[in-house]
From TrEMBL:
GO terms for molecular function: DNA binding. SUPFAM superfamilies: lambda repressor-like DNA-binding domains. The lineage of its organism: Bacteria, Bacillati, Bacillota, Bacilli, Bacillales. It comes from the Bacteria. It holds the Pfam family HTH_3. PROSITE patterns: HTH_CROC1 (PS50943). Residues 19-70 form the HTH cro/C1-type domain. This is HTH cro/C1-type domain-containing protein. InterPro entries: Cro/C1-type_HTH, Lambda_DNA-bd_dom_sf.
Length: 76
């Protein structure tokens, strides 16, 4: 469980947005997959709100840690 928390802390906005776009999801769909509101997705994407470790963990649960790592290499 500790590695998951460490990974969860490393998510940034660029990675968050790229994962959404690669999944073919709009903000409403992405929010539904993550169990958060569309407005929160929008605020994260514009930098108004930070990506919490909880939200980062939800992204990893939905898309898988291996996929997230691959996408992270693309956005660096």
């Amino acid at each position: 469980m500790l590695p998951r928390l460490k990974e969860a802390r490393s998510m940034d906005v660029k990675l968050f947005v790229t994962i959404r776009k690669l999944s073919g999801s709009n903000q409403y769909q992405y929010a539904g997959k993550l169990g958060i509101s569309r407005s929160l997705v929008a605020k994260i994407e514009t930098g108004e709100r930070a990506i919490t470790t909880d939200i980062s963990a939800k992204v990893r649960e939905e898309f898988g840690a291996d996929y997230i790592e691959q996408v992270a290499k693309l956005v660096k």
